[in-house]
Amino acid sequence: MGHITEDRDDAIARIYLRRGKEESLLRRHPWIFSGALERIECAGDGIAEGEIVDVYTSRGEFIARGHYQIGSIAVRVLAFERVAIDRAWWCGRIGEAYALRRALSLTDNPSTDCYRLVHGEGDSLPGLVVDIYGTTAVVQCHSVGMYRSRSVIADAICECYDGRIEAVYDKSSQTLPFKADLGAVDGYLRGRAAQMPLTVSENGLLYNVDWEHGQKTGFFLDQRVNRDLVRRYARGRNVLNTFCYTGGFSVNAFAGGAAEVCSIDSSERAVQLAEKNVRLNFGDGARHTALAVDAVEYLKSIGDRYDMIILDPPAFAKHHKVLGNALQGYKRINARAMSQIRPGGILFTFSCSQAVSRDLFRTTVFSAAAIAGRRVRILHQLTQPADHPVNIYHPEGEYLKGLVLYVE
Ligand code: SAH
């Protein structure tokens, strides 16, 4: 931890909140919305996006220190104490994130060498994501403040792993607020990967991961535990894996003894990746079909071929304004899957939209079941794994929701 500074720091800009607007901060919620701001006091040329700011109540009491942003979230809180945000502070926070993953048996696990090290607000590092693939860390900054700190973040990661991380790759160009116009270019901050793609292991199954060219950081690490559940139920089943990306669910279905798997993604590249990953684990023996088609269209007429279906679409609702359409989208694919799945079929259905709450998702799937007119039982209620922790004061961080349904 950095040292606590006693006096108010005149080099740091000060934001005063409107009266009463400190309430959510007193409950340790890490965001301050722009509407809560009364005025900004700063020396010189004003305040730049990404700068460290101190936040005060209308009565002039210090309340938090964080990164200033332009947009609806004006400050993302780094600390509720007046600590110096220096190298020691970064090492401390990243060290705490590491300690949690070590407690989860992820940092030294021969069967799983890929996991999330930093999950934004869930690790009290709002705006920062760090994923580990073998000896490489992939950093994604979602805020200008984090992006400006990327060098010290890379140092802190390397220090924390004591030589076991050989490369740090920055992949922020697609995740920074585009209005910030930073001209960010993805690339290595430290070292470089020995080979690309890299073969990683998740629950003992192998995947090619390419963070330089793949979606997000190259692999969806948040489905690790749920993939394992697919493995448990797949024996003898004919499986349809829609929105397959790298084919994680398909590989697990085969590992669990599935008779056949069909993987679907609208992206040709994704379908090739899924095909490669199935071959990497099972050679040419697996009865796998991979199709680059629209999953929503494909689900229209699948007949009664499948007795296990996985629906893992991208976030249909990126924000609240499009919630209505998103819910229609979830209802449509779920109704299509439930009306056609074979009796005794198992449906894995997910939503990763932050704007769709757990209850809302369940109600939507309930409506879909009613449209399909089938008898449906909930077997499991799924969420994100423990390396994607939720800060209890920031419930918005709980984004992945899933249901496993048994359809008569
Ligand atoms: N299930 C995957 C992650 C899915 S990510 C895993 O376990 O890793 C969502 C995927 O949906 C992306 O690969 C994207 O290319 C694909 N996608 C988006 N819209 C689609 C559509 N209409 N039909 C099929 N695939 C789509």
Structural overview:
With 408 residues, the protein is α/β, with parallel strands linked by helices. It has ten helices and 20 strands. It folds into three domains: 13-79, PUA domain (Archaeosine Trna-guanine Transglycosylase, Chain: A, domain 4), CATH 2.30.130; 87-199, Transcription Regulator spoIIAA; 220-407, Rossmann fold. It has helices at 23-26, 87-103, 144-148, 150-161, 224-233, 248-255, 268-282, 295-298, 323-340, 358-372, and strands at residues 13-17, 31-33, 37-41, 52-56, 62-68, 73-79, 114-119, 128-133, 136-141, 167-170, 187-190, 198-202, 205-209, 238-242, 260-265, 288-292, 308-311, 345-351, 376-382, 401-407. Strands 16-15-14-17-18-20-19 form a seven-stranded mixed beta sheet, with helices on both faces. Strands 2-6-5-4-1-3 form a six-stranded mixed beta sheet. The chain has a five-stranded mixed beta sheet with strand order 7-8-9-10-11. The longest helix has 18 residues, at 323-340. It is globular, with a radius of gyration of 23 Å. The structure holds S-adenosyl-L-homocysteine (SAH). The site of S-adenosyl-L-homocysteine (SAH) has 18 residues, from α6, β15 and α8.
